[in-house]
Amino acid sequence: MGSAVSGSLYLGLDCSTQSVTALIIDAARRLVVFRDSIPFDAAFPVFGTVDGVLPPSSPDVVHAPPLMWKTALHAMFERMAASGVDLRQLRAISGSAQQHGSVYCGEHPHILTRSTAPIWMDSSTGRECGEIESALGGAQAVADLTGSRAYPRFTGPQIRKFAREEPNAYAATARIHLISSWLASLLIGRHGPVDHADASGMNLMDLRTRTWSATALSATAPELARKLPPLVRSDAVIGALHESWQTRFDMPAVPVVAWSGDNPCSLIGTGVLREGQLAVSLGTSDTIFAAMAAPRVSADGTGHVFASPTGEYMGITVFRNGALARKRVRDQFALDWDGFSVALRSTDAGNRGAMTLPWLEPEITPIVPRAMPLSIGLEGAQASGHVRAIVEAQMLALATHSAWMGVTPRTIYATGGSAANRDILQVMADVFNADVAQSSQTDSAALGAAIRALQADTGVSWQEAVDGFLPADDAYRLKPVAAHVAVYETARPAYAALEAEGLSRLTVARP
Ligand code: XUL
User: Fold this and answer.
1) What pTM was computed for the model?
2) Measured between alpha carbons, how far is residue 297 from residues 76, 304, 372, 435 in Å?
3) Does some domain include residue 372?
4) Residues 90-110: tens digit of each pLDDT
5) In the structure, which protein residues have their CB atom closer than 6 angstroms to any atom of ligand 1?
6) What CATH number is given to the structural domain containing 46?
């Protein structure tokens, strides 16, 4: 049994698409005292993942093994225990996970009724999305109710597909978790609840009442109400760290605060607390999110409104072709990341009119069901032209598809692995005509989880909770260059036209 809780340390974990990260903050000294990350492919080759996912049986089916995440969680606790940080000083734990993915369990979280979990990159539920939207009165009705129209990666459509394709395994499932609530359940040793913020990515919760919507549940799958965990506020303590973890890692019986999705955690980890503030996360997915005082649902269908961990709301738009698309272009021309940066620095803003679509894989925003490579002016271009084209396309897409949030930021808070690259951030500053504040560290999801644990434990205001953990000085700030801003004002309609051309070349199943 662990000793009483006494110190000032808070642990934030993040189980993302490609790795698990842990960050321990010292609330008294406002310091990060531990940070480590374990990449799934390299550390656990036995699971056979590539970039954190199982080789797909078809391009639109993307699953990952939950047992890999569980193994990674144990491995991370081992590293923390061996690190020299006194884990007996921990006061609370919270966590973050990639959103939308679902884990299917029996009566106990250790029992799985499905060996794989569909994750956010899965786009195989177009049929189910259509069925759910028809049952609920159309796409806009679903958006008004749940914050988003039915999206293929959202958990409800995924559950519907599982119930249809594997009715026996579905019937044997006692509990359906999000990845966040499943990992939290493993820590407390029993099935725990789902927090409001991550539940917003399921097409199952009434966003305004923050309760499961009976009509959405019955439009999705039979007996669903019995299989879903209860809902809780994101700052709820859901239990104490189970004895097995305490004994094995010499840890106290610390409270476990509800885990949440990586984007809601990043909202906290970037300090985006007030309406008008906006952040961009450049990770496996590129996401752009803003704090919202009241839910403003996207009319053009490209965005989502989630409950935010602060109890308010957040608007978010998500792109699937993020870091892996950048890496693909880098590898295609045998560059390293330094070479990628040199390519950006040695080319002109606007790429002399050359342009590409970033749809190297199916895309979420806009919905593009299969890869659709389309470029203009890149024939015979050098590597540097291709590098600039992919980065400019991603930034133009971020700007175009976040207009619905109605936020004209003066400063964008940048996070995620690629935010370490200042040449990419300069393109962001120029396209958005805004300052870009570069995080002093890029793990805003893990940091946000640690800060959520601190806030829930102490009850301080959100501003007090984040103070001292975010970059305060101008050293990390990039400014837009006026001449480049002018170039991108012209590039924006050209990019919109290229998108329209790309979409018209596809037989898009759903608008
Ligand atoms: C959010 C989304 C992705 C995942 C990535 O809606 O699909 O950002 O959360 O981890």
Assistant:
1) 0.96
2) 38, 7, 28, 26
3) no
4) 999 999 999 999 999 999 999
5) 16-17, 98-100, 120, 153, 201, 261-263, 285, 287, 318
6) 3.30.420.40
